[in-house]
């Protein structure tokens, strides 16, 4: 599985023969490859008019391109703001709360991301195919899909150390702009241009899988909540900056302590271990059916809603999604 940004084909259909050779070199004899573009075809075509674009089938004859639309960061931020507003609604009117929750589209985004990740995992597991995932820049939705596909396929990514390595490899080293995306929370009065809960959505998707396979993960829900909190506000330097270059210039290794070195201490690690964990070497396939996806109460409702209200609301939400 590979990840990248969009090819710069533009309206003239520019080619990069080195890129074509590189990608074709990953194909096994007699096998096809799949390019999963996390944009809709319409958005990809609009990007082409601005100098970006997508791979031309004539130049990548052994590759099949599939568009699985995952919304851009600005749409995700609006979704989070609406979700927080719904969760802070103190009217105790279930119909009103459910309407706000549905309007936020948060669970829809989770479904779209998990669906794309499952597709990537299926191509690899069931067909033995090579997969290239990209969006526009390759630093947002691309990382969500590649990270979740590895969790589905690779049991090592479901361990604490394996998941930490996954975050470092797929998010920190790959250049997800944490400084821009997590500069302020949804409670902020000012609206930041680049703000977006991309990493939070990834963690939410992991929580959805963890809830469906509670014995297959070495870590618990508190581990995911801890990562969410430190991505936004932390006394450690792990999530500072937008990329490795910035972190190097800031000399964070010399000036700050790593989050991982704190988490992996025995006295802290015990807080994040899942007592139900049993090593599972199999591929796990999460469900994206309406009844399988729930609002992450541990993050969004930990201060506001009683569990009984949430259970009733979830049943209502399933009905709404099913019949809509």
UniProtKB/TrEMBL annotation:
GO CC annotation, single: cytoplasm
InterPro entries per record: Myotubularin, Myotubularin-like_Pase_dom, Prot-tyrosine_phosphatase-like
Taxonomic superkingdom: Eukaryota
GO biological process: negative regulation of autophagy; phosphatidylinositol dephosphorylation
A GO molecular function held by the record: protein phosphatase binding
PROSITE patterns linked to this entry: PPASE_MYOTUBULARIN
UniProt xrefs under Pfam families: Myotub-related (PF06602)
Family: Belongs to the protein-tyrosine phosphatase family. Non-receptor class myotubularin subfamily.
Protein name: Myotubularin-related protein 9
Domain Myotubularin phosphatase: 1-300
Organism lineage string: Eukaryota, Metazoa, Chordata, Craniata, Vertebrata
Native species: Colius striatus
